[in-house]
Each structure stands twice: as C-alpha cells, then as structure tokens.
Design goal:
The protein has 338 residues and is of the alpha+beta class. The protein is built from nine helices and eleven strands. The termini are far apart.
Length: 338
C-alpha cells in the first residue's frame, strides 16, 4: 500500500515519541509533535487534525503497512508501546519498500563512477546486497562488519537533524568513568563513526572544551527548545581528524612523528593496510623487515593498533611512546607470570 511522504513523517514521529518512555504522551502531545515535524521537514505550518493522528495510530496498529504496532492507552489518557523494544523501524520490508529501494539502488549505481561519489561504493554495495537478499529471500553474499548489540543508534537521526538545524540538545549521559548519569545542555557539531561505534562532538553548556560523547552511553535525548544554539567556532570539522587514528583528540593536541619497526611476517600486511594515510616506508632491511613512519596524534586508538601486533612491532620513537610500551609490556609480563 503506497504511503505519502507526510504520512511517513507522522508515523516516524509517533514512533519516536512512543519509544521515549521518560515522558507520558497524550493525544494532544502526539498531535503537537507531528505538527512540529511536518513544519521542520516540509515547511507545513497549518498543523494537523486530531482525527488525522487517530487514523495514523489506527493504521500503525493494523497489518496494512506491516507494522502491527502494539500501541496501548493507559490511565485512559496516555499512549505507549506495550513492548518497550518495539519500533516500526524494526519491521520487515514490504514489497512496496523493496520496489522503492531497488529503484534507488539502480539510480545510485549510475553515479558510482563519478568523482563526487567517491567512497560511496561501500554504501551502494550494502544496499544492493540487502535488497537482493530480501527480494529473493536468500542469505546475503556480502558480510559487512556490524555490531548487533550496539546501543544508541536510535539517537543518530535526532542528533544529525539537530546539527543540520542548529538545535541544542538536552542529554542524560553517563561516561564509562562516572558512577551515575548526569543531565546537561549540549551543542552538537559533528557525528563520527569509528569501528561500528558512533560519537558526537560538541560543547557542553557553560564550557569551552570540545567533548566526544559515545552514542551508546546516552540514556535520554531531546531537543532543548528554549536553549539558543551556540555555533561552532572552536574546530574545523573538515580537517580536525586528518592526523588522528580513531576519535580521541583534544583541541590543541599536535601530531607527532611515530617511527616503528615491523618484522618480516607482518611488514607486508602493514604496508598494504596502513595505520594512517601519512604512513610511509623509511627503511627496508635485508631480512624483509621494514621501518615505517606515521605523523599522528598519540592517543589510545593508536596504542591499541600497535598492541594488536604485540611481539611483531617495536616502536622506535618518540621516546615517550617507547617508554609507554615498555611499561605496559612489563605489566603484562608480570600479569602472565603471576
């Protein structure tokens, strides 16, 4: 059954509301949320009727779109999902969905060779493989890296639109080191993915320090309607990560030249799969081992890359990094000898 764009925006908005269990949603609240979404995405400012949202809820509950949404009313007033893990985004693709996605894939394939779309081959291949396997009811023939248990991805869309529309966020967040979650106003500037985890970079209200927050540590998120957005004036989102492996970097942290030796067995692998785009070979030895240089910020992601090769790589400089690995490996030796 074909669904127009405005209806899809309303269904998505209702779904987002009902998944937020930190707030109780009346029909009037849902009407207001849908009206705001239509204004934000389509510029429609006339609002929507009570009957329209009631019909939307009825449609989401039905089988017509394949949602079968478990929407219930409690206290004769408040709407929620009976199953707290339910979302319309988790429902299987319909025939109409597959047809639209197939058409989209065909269009994207025509642009793959254009320079403007460099780097999109992976995305198009993912879509093409997913659509083909869904249509033919077969297993995918491309197995992309994924993290099935990753939390926080449901916040991705909201943060993206907050950045684009320059909106402040009220966030409840708990870092790995904190004993409990705290709530604060956050101005988001950039989303970044690293090894199947997503991070948002921005500034907390009342500070000038750039923060890096993992989406899977967010407990609650909503637009702070009455909080003016503070524009990004502290870092260049286009170049900030040019000298970084991963996502860990402070504002004034400078790159350093890191030189390391790799043994004969692993040198070809490291040569063909560089740690960083700045990597170059600076010495070739008769035994097949190589000495590399990279110019990067020294952070925990770099350290973990090198730890992964343990007895196959030796850091030669800078001395601070040499001392760090010497200390770490001594601790590891003590651990295994105990």
């Amino acid at each position: 059954m074909p669904v127009n764009r405005n209806a899809l925006i309303r269904y998505k908005t209702i779904d987002t509301c009902l998944r937020n269990r930190y707030r109780r949603w009346t029909l009037e609240d849902l009407i207001e949320a849908c009206s705001d979404a239509l204004y934000e995405y389509e510029g429609i400012d006339k609002g929507i009727s009570k009957r329209t949202v009631q019909m939307d809820i009825q449609m989401m509950r039905s089988e017509k779109l394949g949602y079968n949404a478990p929407i219930v009313v409690y206290d004769n007033k408040y709407y929620t999902y009976e199953d707290e893990d339910y979302s319309i985004t988790n429902t299987p693709l319909s025939e109409q969905d597959l047809k639209v996605m197939s058409e989209a894939v065909e269009v994207l394939r025509q642009f793959k060779s254009f320079s403007y779309f460099t780097g999109m081959d992976d995305i198009v291949s993912r879509l093409e493989d997913h659509v083909t396997s869904a249509k033919q009811k077969t297993v995918p023939v491309i197995d992309f890296e994924k993290n099935e248990g990753l939390k926080g991805l449901d916040y991705l869309d909201a943060i993206y639109h907050a950045i684009v529309n320059k909106q402040s966020l009220e966030m409840k967040y708990r870092s790995f080191k904190a004993r409990s979650a705290s709530t604060f106003i956050f101005y988001p500037y950039l989303l970044k993915e690293y090894r199947n985890r997503w991070f948002v970079f921005g500034v907390k209200k009342g500070t000038q320090m750039l923060m890096n927050l993992a989406l899977d540590r967010i407990h609650r998120l909503e637009i702070a309607e009455n909080e003016p957005y503070r524009d990004n004036t502290i870092f260049d989102t286009g170049t900030f990560f040019d000298n970084v492996i991963g996502v860990t970097k402070t504002l004034n942290q400078e790159a350093e030249v890191v030189r390391f030796w790799a043994d004969r067995q692993n040198a070809p692998y490291i040569k063909t799969k560089p740690f960083h785009k700045s990597q170059k070979v600076v010495e070739e030895n008769e035994d097949g081992s190589l000495v590399f240089e990279i110019e990067v910020v020294i952070n925990q992601e770099l350290q973990r890359e090198i730890f992964g090769f343990a007895n196959s790589i030796k850091v030669l400089s800078p001395q601070s990094l040499v001392d760090f690995f010497g200390w770490k490996f001594r601790l590891a030796k003590e651990l295994y000898n105990s």
